[in-house]
User: What shape does this take?
Amino acid sequence: MQSILLEIFKDIPFTEAETKRMFDKLEKVSLKKGAFLLQAGESVHDIHYIHQGCLRTYFEDSSGKEHTLQFAIKGWWISDYIALYGKTETKSVSYIECIKEATLYKISKKDFDSLCKEIPKVAHFHIGKLEGAFAAFQRRILENLTLSATERYLNFIAAYPNIEQTVKNYHIASYLGITTESLSRIRKEMATV
Amino acid sequence: MQSILLEIFKDIPFTEAETKRMFDKLEKVSLKKGAFLLQAGESVHDIHYIHQGCLRTYFEDSSGKEHTLQFAIKGWWISDYIALYGKTETKSVSYIECIKEATLYKISKKDFDSLCKEIPKVAHFHIGKLEGAFAAFQRRILENLTLSATERYLNFIAAYPNIEQTVKNYHIASYLGITTESLSRIRKEMATV
Assistant: This one.
């Protein structure tokens, strides 16, 4: 019980009482490949820490085309943040699909907010995570605006090492905002360099 | 002194000692139209609350083309968040330009972090702001992927009422990721409906 908290909270030292308080709020979730953690239209109450496996968040546009917003691997937190943190939505606008068998730890936003109020170390951990995520998202917008598809693909490989065995080509292409044909072309060009 | 803190922190009640502590860390900054709050390559240490006026954050790509990331108006906080909150950069990757004469209140990240540790109300306020900003950015990525340029323009007008008198057409077009010609066409179409 101690070890998963140390993993989740990056070795922050908690007292025994704090450890118990936090562990009581966490629920272990196992997901098979292909299962959905969340589907568009469902109510969103929880965030999930990924202990093992891989998940993909995507939107489906009105023509049925999928747009991959995020891949999430060990050490990440996943939810539909537009619903969870936004002011106007409470229903998920995205799908979160398990693409490699996963073990997650779930906590409701309500409980997480309480922990932040009760245990300042949790609040400061959360601030650090949010600041990092906000910077990463702004960086991604910047990269989409200013980098070539090849450069974005290289950044993707660096950010998600070894993920290519797990995800389908059209997932990667839709994450990069390109066609699968462009992705194949980029890979071929890289192979011949 | 009390009134600007009430404006910045949305009426959170602070004690007299907290008010003094916080006000000591804030510095008033006045900016003329056309002045830069920050330029690419400069070190980033501060965040700025906008009391009056309007600013624009943009990136310049290698061909010199500007990409508008954000407009910031009264009530917003502005900085180069990739440098301020990211783990790899410390220099600004963007320009922040004053596009309507502005009054800001500046605080260093170091001082803000200290306030979050000393005054839990500030930490929880910061968490709420970060969560809202994170949701808004994800929503913007989603909208860029799934909405038409006309729909994005309508959302822009709703998010920034009355901003069109202040900003240039190519600012709006680059925020929406379209050409100024497309923007003109959209406006014409809307005028004839």
Remarks:
- The first helix of chain A runs from residue 2 to 8.
- Helices of chain A lie at 2-8, 16-25, 81-85, 109-118, 120-146, 149-159, 169-176, 180-191.
- The radius of gyration of chain A is 18 Å.
- Chain A touches chain B through 36 residues (CB under 8 Å).
